[in-house]
Amino acid sequence: MTIGRKLALGFGVVLVLLTLTGVIAFRGVSGMETDAEEVIHKNVLVKDLSQGEIAHLNWANQVVALITDESITQLSVETDHHKCAFGQWLYSDARKEAERQVPELASILKEIERPHQELHESAIEIDHHFQQADAVLPGLLATRMVDHLKWADLIRDAFLNGKTSLEVETDPTRCALGQWLTSAEGKKAYEEAGPELKRAWDQMLVVHRALHESAVDVCRHIAEGEQGRVAAKKVFDERTMPLLEQTLGHMEQMKLAAEQALEGQNLAKQVLVTKTKPCLHTVQGLLHQAVGCVDEVVTRTNDGMMASARLTKWSVGVLSVVAVAIGIVAAVLIARGILSALTKIIASLKEGSEQVAAASGQVSAASQSLAEGATEQAAGLEETSSSLEEMSSMTKQNADNAQQANALAGEARKAADTGAESMTRMSKAINDIQKSSDETAKIIKVIDEIAFQTNLLALNAAVEAARAGEAGKGFAVVAEEVRNLAMRSAEAAKNTANMIEESVKNSKNGVDIATEVGKVLEQIVQSVGKTTNLVGEIAAASQEQAQGIDQVNTAVSQMDKVTQQNAANAEESASASEELSSQAESMNEIVGELVALVGGASGKPRSAGPQRGGRRGELSRSDHVYHDIASAAPARTPKAKQGHVAKPAVKRPIPLDEDERLDHFNS
């Protein structure tokens, strides 16, 4: 069995055990995670049920506060059993999920629906019956009614006893009822009163004021003596007594309204005691029962989770111990197999290092022979390259001069062509001038004839003016002036004709001269054209010659490049032979380390092959020759190839394998 298979088998067994341990741990943790999630959900359920109980206790306290707290005048609790927080949960999918998790809750939640509904309906009934009432108000109103009856009896007694004054209160705000109405207690009772009580209250205030005002009139009349007594009796009978009856009637209505409010408050208290509290007690008991049921399930789940945790702990511990034991046994067996394999590898490496040392000597001798041939070839190519470089330089100079002469001849030809063209244009211009002069002469002749005819007409006009006598005298003067103008025009036309004739003669002479110059320029153009053609042929021949020499120079440069490459290769071969020897020494050292690793320091062998101490990393004579050739090669390269750089010598060791530590050897 190979080392790889032994390692694979040992690590495979350990990995299988570790995988089994991981699977058991994962399943155990997953089960505990599931149980933990279930416990969390049930704890949330317990919290929801407990919050429902607390919420209904607070709800009941608010209902009780409506009856017991005078500052609360309106019921502000949720009366719909579907809309309270617990009702929303009770009639939602959350209840179904809770019943799925804890099936025992189904009967309890079903049982709680009816008392929960009646609990909220009792709040509606309490809100319907309840009225804010003052328990003292009915008795107070009865007392004030008696006071006003006594007040009327005092007035009646005054009539019977013949008194002239009344000892009764005539100010409606200072009587006992008026003082209570204007007090803080009375104002508070009015604010808390119901609509019927307020309506009777307002009507009573008006009548009560009128009642006391009628007493003022009675006092005024009774003070008048016997005469006023009848009027006073009339006011008492017709005004005071009817107003007293109305006042007492309104007070009776107020008393009845207050008693009705007390009765509604008592009914609300009765509903609170007979329905609200029993329903609340039932709901609380069922919620307690539901919470206890959920707590029991949570306790069972916790016990199962702890048992699963203990089982997982023991399973993982046992498998871990087994995996460690098997790993130790596999390590011992694999170590023994590796030691035997390494012993064989060491023997093979020792033999290989000796063979490498012998081969390095042979490579060094071959490299020296190759270096001598490369030296001679490089010297011959250097002389050839120098001669070709000088010839190429002279040929290029001749080609450049021929090209410059060709360019100058071309420019001269262009100048001659331009001059001939200019002379042609000048001849044409002179011909045009001659034609214009001929036309001008014709025009002058016409002007001369017009002047002659004008002169004749002026003579005729003068003759006719003389015949007319005194009447044509002015016309004669005009005719004379016209004649003078005609004579002057004829003289000017004659002078102009002479000048134009002279200009025509000069134009003809210019045309003749321009024709002669054009012919001479045409001959010059032909001569320059021939010269340009000859110079062009010379330039082309020089260019072809230069190209041929460049090709020869390129071939020599390539030969020089090959020679340099050979020199570089020779240098690399020499360096490689040195590195090969160095690798042999390194291999011997590695073998010694392996021997020390396997059998201890006492088993370290001697280095195989000839020792080359003192020369490791140094170059031999032939290596220096290669190095000189490669270093001097760029200086001998022609100018056209000065960009070429010789390949540098290899500076890294030659590896014997992809892994210098021999980790991949196997038995």
UniProtKB/TrEMBL annotation:
Q: Which GO terms describe its molecular function?
A: transmembrane signaling receptor activity
The record ties this protein, via SMART domains, to: MA
Methyl-accepting transducer domain boundaries: 352-581
Q: Which PROSITE patterns match?
A: CHEMOTAXIS_TRANSDUC_2
What Gene Ontology terms for biological process does this UniProt record contain? chemotaxis; signal transduction
**Pfam families for the chain:** CZB, MCPsignal
Entry's localization field:
Membrane
Task: List residues traversing the bilayer.
Answer: 314-335
Going by the UniProt record, its keywords in alphabetical order are: Chemotaxis, Membrane, Transducer, Transmembrane, Transmembrane helix
GO CC terms in record: plasma membrane
**Biased composition, Low complexity: where in the chain?**
381-409
Endpoints of the signal sequence: none
Q: Where does the record place Basic and acidic residues bias?
A: 615-627
Tell me the Gene3D superfamilies matching this sequence. Aspartate receptor, ligand-binding domain, Methyl-accepting chemotaxis protein
Region entry Disordered: which residue ranges?
Answer: 374-423, 600-667
Transmembrane among keywords: yes
Which family does this protein fall into?
Answer: Belongs to the methyl-accepting chemotaxis (MCP) protein family.
Q: What name appears for this protein in its UniProt entry?
A: Methyl-accepting chemotaxis protein
